[in-house]
Amino acid sequence: MKMNRFITASILAIALASPAYGGTFMFAESQEDPDIITHPIGYNGTGETLEVSVCIATDSESQSELEIPVQNAAATWTTLQPTNSNVTRSDSELGPNQFDVESVLLHELGHCIGLAHPNLGKKSEPNLTNTEQEFAMALNGSNGAYDLDAGGDGIPGSRDDVRGDDVNLNWFRIGKNDPFLYESEIDLDTYSNDKNDLPSGHTWIEIASFDVSQDLGQGSGEGVMNQGTFPQETQRKIHNEDATTLRIGMAGLDEDQGTGDDYGIQLTYGGIADDCDITIRMKDDGFGLCEIGGDPTNSPHISITSGTITLGSTSAVNWYFNSTLSGLIFRDRFEQQ
Hints:
The chain has helices at 63-79, 101-112, 121-124, 210-215, 240-250; strands at 7-13, 24-25, 37-39, 49-56, 99-100, 115-116, 138-139, 167-168, 172-173, 191-192, 264-272, 278-284, 288-298, 301-312, 319-320. It is of the alpha/beta class.
């Protein structure tokens, strides 16, 4: 499929009454190409550490309240220390109707460095029920509709789902299909999006939803990139699923870990400014929105060219602003620490 030189995508983060639950890349859905791998801004095919600056816009509300959550979220992606237990429900730190701004920022920053939703979510098809949104992300097949059968376990997003002619977009460990793994080699020698590489007896790609995690005894966790959040829920660490998908991209254009085009990622906080690679603004009546542009010069690899995160105003969303630095080590854009 031929793509324009510059393409855009937007991803909406929606607060749901119930959670919306592999790993996928931005643009794969909009371009209908499962093989697309999206890289952070600045990647040009050479091995290096990409320094991606993150600012709070000068016209944003709640600038001082946002600073610590933004710094924490940036540091969490930079340190790349995942866990399978990363969700706290009914966190006493928050009021019963509050949403944690740091958790939402962590999700939106994931979009701005290339990661998409592992689950269908509301953005894919607004008419899906909350339960249907929990199935793994895919494209419609030739019948023009999603095939959504949760299989014998009744849990959407698990390995026994029956998806008819849907086209998978999630990457998984070849022969294992386990989103809770975090292995030493993560590239296209070990990961695939081809259903033929599933283990015997598995009918679809498993994703790290909260329900799947609970069913398999993997703790209280889910992928940060899963769409949907509860009031009074905190999720301030990335999941093994998130880190694995990011590292597939970090293997570079040759899709082979350990070669000269591999890269690392350093998200640096640039303060209150408008000239960063990713700009965060709180000012509208929505919830959370990520908008990016991309350059498909090396298709199916796309490098992000711009990123903007818009959060709902405090008059629209009852935000909780974390006021404690996480203690993770990272480098500020304007001063060495």
